[in-house]
Design a protein that fits this description.
Arc Repressor Mutant, subunit A; 2 domains; mainly alpha
Amino acid sequence: MADRAQQIMAAARELLDAEGPDALSMRRIAERVGIRAPSLYKHFPDKAAVEAGLQVQGMTRLAEELEAAEAEIGVEPPLFVLARAYRRHALASPHLYRITHGRPLVRAALPEGLEDRAATPLANAVHGDLHVARSVWAFAHGMVVLELDGRFPPGADLDAAWRTGCDAFAQAIRDRTREDIA
C-alpha cells in the first residue's frame, strides 16, 4: 500500500477508535491526513473501500490474536482459551470489532487466505466440525455484542457465563466424537 494510502488508513483507524463508525467520513479522514477530501479518491474509490480496509485490519488482528492463543493452549480447555482471546480482541477495539464483525464482510477486499487463517484456530479446537465451529463463533459473537451493548445486569459473572458456554460446546464435541466412533 502506498504511503498516502497507509496514512489514510491510519487516520481512518484513529477516527474510528476515537469516535466510532458514525464519525467516519471522507471529509473527516482527509482533515486528519491534512489533505482535501477529493484527494482521498485517488487512493480509495469511496468510504466503503476505507471500511473494507478496516475490516482487513480487524480480521488480521483477530487471526494474530487467535493464533497466539492457540499456541498457549495447554492446561485450560482450548475453547475457553480461544473464547477469552476473542473477547479480549473485541473489548480492546470495540469499534473495529463492530466494523469487522457486525457488518457484511467484504470478502473481495480480504487478502487471500485471511478469513481461513482467522478461522483455523477454532476449527482446530473443534476437530474440523464446521457446524460446531459456526455455533461457537455465534455464541462468542453474541456474548461480545451483549457485553459491548451493556445488556448484562450489573455484577453479572460474565467469566462464568463464557466458561459455561464453552463447557457446553466442549461436551457437544465429545458427544459428537463418541457418535462418530460408534
